[in-house]
Amino acid sequence: MDFATAILGTHLRNISAADLRAYFDSNPDETENVELKSGSTGISEVVAQVVGFLNGAGGLIVWGSPNPTTEIDETGARRQNYSGPIVSVQRRTKDDLNRALMGNIQPLPLGIRIQECRVDGGAIFVIEVDPSSSPPHQEGGKYWIRVDGETRAASHGVVESLFLRRRGPAFVMTARQKVTPIPSAHGRIDLFRVKLDILLRNESKNIGEFVEVGVKCGPGVVERDSRLDIVDPKFGDEMEGPISSNDGFTRWRFRVNGWVVHAHSWRVLQGNLVIAREAGGGLSVALGIAIQAKDMARAEWVADFGLDDREGEVQFDVR
Question: N or C: which end of the chain has fewer CB within 10 A?
Answer without folding.
Answer: N
